[in-house]
Specification:
three-stranded antiparallel β-sheet, 7 strands, transmembrane, alpha+beta, membrane, Chloramphenicol Acetyltransferase, diacylglycerol O-acyltransferase activity, globular
């Protein structure tokens, strides 16, 4: 029987903690002003980051051998890591952040005796890198969590709101027996087509070898990150052409 302080991992969480699928979510914040260490520690210590049940639990194994989250006390000094020296070989602050994140993805594993998140402060480059294990959540859920911590600029007591998604209404004719049977037939037909296509690709189709094809152990090779810039006007054009869309960009390593 699981105690109140323990919560079993979801099937997805168990998948992400396997060595073959060990994935972390990384986010970088840059500032124009020097980092104020004491203020950053105070804000994180008083925020939902250190109080949320999932973010204040360690990965544990119960007496039945099942992975679970076990509630613990947050030691904020173990989660905020300072890097005072500049990154060697970096052209500028942006390049330094990219080099640091690329190395952080594969070179430094998470310590399992503390919650699986940490904040790296690059003092010389005025940026903060947040790393969280994918077992804590995916990009969307973590983004929703950080959004829930925010407040409106004009009303500090209220959370920010997002435009509601307009769901198109179904045609009343779809509720008829004929419409239901027709939709069921399409589901069965396309399911068979996609399964056959998947099996055929799995058996006969192979990716061609190119100059960027990876070999054995490619997941352990050194990583490199580059920054891509997008014009807001171009993204607005895409949003106008595709109604009810939200532009989100995530970087996972």
């Amino acid at each position: 029987m699981i105690r109140e302080s323990e919560e079993p991992l979801t099937p997805a969480g168990r998948l992400f903690i396997q060595p073959e699928t060990n994935i972390s979510v990384i986010c970088c914040f840059g500032t124009h002003e020097p980092l104020r260490i004491d203020a950053i520690k105070s804000v994180i210590a008083d925020s939902m980051i250190s109080k949320h049940p999932r973010l204040s639990s360690i990965l544990s194994v119960d007496k039945n051998g099942q992975e679970c989250w076990k509630k613990t006390n947050i030691d904020i000094d173990r989660h905020i890591i300072f890097h005072n020296d500049p990154i060697e070989g970096a052209k500028d602050d942006q390049d330094a952040a990219n080099m640091f994140m690329a190395d952080l993805v594969v070179s430094v594993p998470f310590e399992t005796d503390k919650p699986l998140w940490e904040v790296h402060l690059l003092i010389s480059h005025k940026c903060a890198v947040i790393r969280a294990h994918h077992a804590l959540g995916d990009g969307i859920s973590l983004l929703s969590f950080f959004l829930a911590m925010c407040r409106k600029a004009d009303d500090p007591e209220r959370m920010p709101t997002m435009n509601p998604v307009v769901v198109p209404r179904r045609n009343p004719g779809d509720k008829a027996i004929g419409g239901i049977l027709w939709r069921l037939m399409k589901v069965v037909w396309f399911t068979v087509v996609f399964v056959v296509d998947f099996i055929a690709r799995l058996v006969w189709v192979r990716d061609e070898m190119t100059v960027v094809s990876g070999g054995a152990g490619v997941e352990l090779w050194p990583r490199k990150l580059v920054t891509a810039r997008f014009l807001i006007d171009d993204m607005k054009i895409v949003k106008k052409c595709i109604p009810n869309t939200v532009s989100l960009l995530f970087l996972k390593g």
